[in-house]
């Protein structure tokens, strides 16, 4: 008996923006098996007859939702674990952790030492204290959460069925039935909420167990009043109990689950802001990963390695306040949250650019999303429809396509790999061949089951010395995987993380060569510096590693340099490009440019849920290379069996809204219209003046010309599978031009 009630839950929309948010959420739920419905006010009232309906515009209904008694569930799981042979010892404090050179652990306790192949930190409030034993500062912090229980309410007692859990998002609280009364829990604003900061500095008090904090009704008074207005029977109810206890928050409310970079065989399952809800799912996720050597599905959002040295205690506290206060705010697309920013992790150009653009947060870095010009509506103005950045991004798109643009790419993760076994290691790690000296390629690390764990660019700068580059969000996620492979295989290799020391500037557009040539004696002509070549040179006397590659798909270079040289390098390039009309561009324009070229992105078109063949990455996967790279055997089997689905390229007829990924794709079949897949990325194509998206659909619906529909904000828009790409890349256009064909722009 675990006290499991399943009355469902309803989120209440009482503003038009909330209704949009629910529609936005519905298209994301549509391609998942979980039941969820957007319901009318009449249906809301039928399910929860005690509501004041004055402000209710819609409800988001999850019939499978409910609540459970955490204590009973914990005891039941413990009993089940014992039944299958687990040993549980408590109360037993851990006093010290010793990592051994063979990767094993010694766990010291007052009752003796336990030897373990791996350890999992699932210590809740004590997670930080455990982390400190091995020199880690886990970014978790305890937050005071209060809830109120009422005595019997006659109107509740008279009901025949249990009320669903209600979340009034504008009032920022939840209400559920507790016996014959109601239980009510608010999330106070950033300014009013309370952190237990002393636990962060001094550790959790010895002996703390089931104790509670002192309650403070004044702090939640405005929420109580909002609840009384929404559920009028609360006005007459007596409060019999106010509970105030600690819950652990991470900076972004999501937990940290999985192996931790920098420490071998140390796993975490910490920072669960919603506690017991995640217990079963995360327990299974973690044990499957430990047993199989790879995650059962992609949960990069909870990767502990999304945080790093930049995640200070001050940052964690500022973010936890914000996250708690924002618990029920509207979740817009491309959301930015500003507490705790900037971190100490800024690019060399941050101070120069910060007032001229709208910055986005990427793994601790600030990176320009789009730039301001006179007459623009500046600042962060989130919306479910096209908003203030729509026209400026079109302008930046045109800048790169017609002239030349500069972008700060410093947040890239950057690693140096060298040593006697470096070629052997990379040949085993990557599905592509190892690039020759002076060359670069795009390579994928696959899991044993043949899923795409990561995408990196690999450059062999000198014989046996490589530079590996990955996206900002994947830095430690990828580094951990590589370090694990080195340790397990005993490779004689050194890997160095250069991410923070190195700046990167991207220069792209038809005049990119003309501008950069003014700054160097090195010949940058196509004959001398080919696509996907890399070399060291000096630009305006500043040493750079230049790679002829660009995620824009236009003529361009990525320029890797010392962080302290970012400003002089940027200034020299801007100065040199005056005549060509050089200007800045940001990541929003970059995203449009890469989508028009049909370039895939890791985390969207490919991740640990997708194999490279269905993602259309065949070109980068060399199944015939001699090395038995990780995932090779699994891929051969996948290829033999044939694919069930594949990535397609869609154009859409929309109005004031564009796809961005994770939307439901519908097909109008003979009998009925059904959800057949999902988008992975999308945007407005400024070059062809229509919306564009990548999507996964079943093989039988994947032919060019196939008509589908994409659901955006509650409406299905017509979509057509087209031949990719919409715009050919610059190297392809040049090749066709040399052959005398006229390339499509």
UniProtKB/TrEMBL annotation:
EC number annotated for this UniProt entry: 1.5.8.4
Domain called FAD dependent oxidoreductase: residue spans: 2-289
Domain of life: Eukaryota
Pathway in which this enzyme or protein is active: Amine and polyamine degradation; betaine degradation; sarcosine from betaine: step 2/2
Annotated source species: Pycnonotus jocosus
Domain Aminomethyltransferase C-terminal: 645-727
Gene coding for it: Dmgdh
GO cellular component terms attached to this protein's record: mitochondrion
PANTHER family: AMINOMETHYLTRANSFERASE (PTHR43757), AMINOMETHYLTRANSFERASE, MITOCHONDRIAL (PTHR43757:SF2)
Family the entry assigns: Belongs to the GcvT family.
Keywords: Acetylation, FAD, Flavoprotein, Mitochondrion, Oxidoreductase, Transit peptide
Function: Catalyzes the demethylation of N,N-dimethylglycine to sarcosine. Also has activity with sarcosine in vitro.
Domain (GCVT N-terminal): residue spans on this chain: 354-625
The UniProt record lists the keyword Oxidoreductase: yes
Record-annotated FAD dependent oxidoreductase central domain positions: 292-345
Record has Transit peptide as a keyword: yes
Enzyme category, top tier: oxidoreductase
Stated name of the protein: Dimethylglycine dehydrogenase, mitochondrial
InterPro entries the record matches: FAD-dep_OxRdtase, FAD/NAD-bd_sf, FAO_M, GcvT/YgfZ/DmdA, GcvT/YgfZ_C, GcvT_C, GCVT_N, TrmE/GcvT-like
GO biological process: choline metabolic process
Catalytic activity, as annotated: (6S)-5,6,7,8-tetrahydrofolyl-(gamma-L-Glu)(n) + N,N-dimethylglycine + oxidized [electron-transfer flavoprotein] + H(+) = (6R)-5,10-methylenetetrahydrofolyl-(gamma-L-Glu)(n) + sarcosine + reduced [electron-transfer flavoprotein]
Entry's localization field: Mitochondrion
Cofactors demanded by this protein: FAD
Lineage: Eukaryota, Metazoa, Chordata, Craniata, Vertebrata
Single GO MF descriptor: dimethylglycine dehydrogenase activity
């Amino acid at each position: 008996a675990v006290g499991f009630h399943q009355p469902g839950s309803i989120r209440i929309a009482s503003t038009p923006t909330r209704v949009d948010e629910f529609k936005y959420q519905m298209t994301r739920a549509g391609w998942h098996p979980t039941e969820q419905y957007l319901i009318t006010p009449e249906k809301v009232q039928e399910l929860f007859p005690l509501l004041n309906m004055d402000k209710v515009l819609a409800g988001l209904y999850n019939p499978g939702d409910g609540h459970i008694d955490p204590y009973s569930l914990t005891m039941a799981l413990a009993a089940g674990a014992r039944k299958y042979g687990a040993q549980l010892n408590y109360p037993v404090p851990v006093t010290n952790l010793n990592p051994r050179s063979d990767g094993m652990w010694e766990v010291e306790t007052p009752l003796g030492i336990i030897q373990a192949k791996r350890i999992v930190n699932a210590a809740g409030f004590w997670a930080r204290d455990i982390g400190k034993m091995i020199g880690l500062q886990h970014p978790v912090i305890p937050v005071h959460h209060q809830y109120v229980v009422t005595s019997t309410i006659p109107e509740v007692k008279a009901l025949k069925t249990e009320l669903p859990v209600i979340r009034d998002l504008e009032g920022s609280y939840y209400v559920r039935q507790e016996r014959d009364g109601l239980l009510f829990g608010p999330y106070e604003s950033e300014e009013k909420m309370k952190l237990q900061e002393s636990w962060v500095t001094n550790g959790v008090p010895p002996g703390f167990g089931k104790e509670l904090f002192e309650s403070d009704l004044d702090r939640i008074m405005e929420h109580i009043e909002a609840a009384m207005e929404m559920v009028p029977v609360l006005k007459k109810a007596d409060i019999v109990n106010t509970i105030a206890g600690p819950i652990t928050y991470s900076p972004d409310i999501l937990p940290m689950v999985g192996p931790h970079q920098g420490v071998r065989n140390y796993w975490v399952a910490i920072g669960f802001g919603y506690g017991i809800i995640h217990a079963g799912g995360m327990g299974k996720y973690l044990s499957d990963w430990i047993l199989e050597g790879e995650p059962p599905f992609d949960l990069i959002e909870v990767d502990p390695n999304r945080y790093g040295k930049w995640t200070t205690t001050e940052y964690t506290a500022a973010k936890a306040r914000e996250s708690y206060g924002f618990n029920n705010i509207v979740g817009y697309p491309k959301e930015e949250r500003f507490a705790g920013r900037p971190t100490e992790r800024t690019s060399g150009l941050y101070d120069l650019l910060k007032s001229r653009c709208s910055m986005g947060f990427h793994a601790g870095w600030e990176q320009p999303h789009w730039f301001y010009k006179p007459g623009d509506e500046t600042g962060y103005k989130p919306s479910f429809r096209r908003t203030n950045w729509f026209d400026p991004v079109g302008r930046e798109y045109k800048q790169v396509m017609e002239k030349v643009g500069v972008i700060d790419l410093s947040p890239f993760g950057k690693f140096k790999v060298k040593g006697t076994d470096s070629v052997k290691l990379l040949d085993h790690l990557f599905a592509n061949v190892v690039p020759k000296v002076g060359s670069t390629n795009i390579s994928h690390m696959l899991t044993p089951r043949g899923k795409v764990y990561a995408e990196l660019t690999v450059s062999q700068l000198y014989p046996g010395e490589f530079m590996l580059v990955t996206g900002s969000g994947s830095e430690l996620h990828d580094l951990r995987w590589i370090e694990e492979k080195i340790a397990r295989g005993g490779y004689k290799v050194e890997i160095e993380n250069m991410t923070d020391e190195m700046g990167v500037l991207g220069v792209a557009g038809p005049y990119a060569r003309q501008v950069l040539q003014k700054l160097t004696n090195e010949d940058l002509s196509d004959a001398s510096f080919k696509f996907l070549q890399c070399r060291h040179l000096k630009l305006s006397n500043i040493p750079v590693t230049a790679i002829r590659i660009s995620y824009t798909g236009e003529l361009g270079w990525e320029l890797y340099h010392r962080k302290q040289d970012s400003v002089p390098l940027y200034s020299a390039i801007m100065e040199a490009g005056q005549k060509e009309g050089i200007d800045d561009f940001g990541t929003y324009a970059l995203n449009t440019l890469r989508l028009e070229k049909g370039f895939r992105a890791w985390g969207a078109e490919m991740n640990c849920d997708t194999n490279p063949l269905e993602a259309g990455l065949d070109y980068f996967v060399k199944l015939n290379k001699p090395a038995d790279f990780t995932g090779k055997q699994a891929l051969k089997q996948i290829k033999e069996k044939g694919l069930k689905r594949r990535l397609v390229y869609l154009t859409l007829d929309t109005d004031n809204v564009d796809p961005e990924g994770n939307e439901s794709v519908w097909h109008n079949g003979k009998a009925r219209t059904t959800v057949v897949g999902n988008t992975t990325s999308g945007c407005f194509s400024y070059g062809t003046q229509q919306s564009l998206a990548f999507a996964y659909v079943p093989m039988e619906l994947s032919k060019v010309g196939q008509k589908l529909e994409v659901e955006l904000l509650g409406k299905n828009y017509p979509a057509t599978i087209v031949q990719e790409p919409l715009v050919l890349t610059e190297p392809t256009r040049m090749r066709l031009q040399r052959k005398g064909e006229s390339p499509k722009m």
